[in-house]
TrEMBL record:
Organism: Branchiostoma belcheri
Keywords assigned: Cytoplasmic vesicle, Endoplasmic reticulum, Membrane, Transmembrane, Transmembrane helix
Protein name as it appears in the record: Vacuolar ATPase assembly integral membrane protein VMA21-like isoform X1
GO annotation, biological process: vacuolar proton-transporting V-type ATPase complex assembly
Pfam families assigned: VMA21
Gene name, Swiss-Prot/TrEMBL: LOC109487821
Highest classification ranks of the organism: Eukaryota, Metazoa, Chordata, Cephalochordata, Leptocardii
GO cellular component terms, A-Z: cytoplasmic vesicle; endoplasmic reticulum membrane
Membrane-crossing segments per the record: 20-41, 61-83
């Protein structure tokens, strides 16, 4: 005979403590991917080849330098923000309930 017992599925909701750091990590991960790539192509086409009229090979080198500096800035900002969260430097304001006195 087959087991006709019900199967219980337990849904584990995300811990509210971990949602904030996870969102922060997700934002910085997306920034580390999109910011250097976007700034590389923007600085290459608009700034170096467009405004300064630099030859394409030199514009590639300058744009790569911009992308590397950008990734370092995003990484430093991520370390600063996440380290500050870990130390508890950011304070969260919890709403307080006040009772009316008669």
């Amino acid at each position: 005979m087959a087991d006709t017992g019900t199967t219980h599925v337990t849904y584990y909701s995300p811990d509210q403590e971990n949602v904030g750091p996870f969102r922060t990590l997700l934002v910085f991960t997306l920034m580390m991917v999109t910011a250097p790539i976007g700034l590389y192509f923007m600085s290459k086409t608009v700034v170096f080849e467009g405004i300064f009229d630099v030859d394409p090979q030199t514009a590639n080198i300058y744009s790569a330098i911009v992308a590397v500096v950008t990734i370092h800035l995003v990484l430093a900002l991520a370390v600063y923000v996440l380290y500050g969260d870990d130390l508890g430097l950011r304070t969260t304001v919890t709403p307080t309930t006040s009772k009316k006195k008669d």
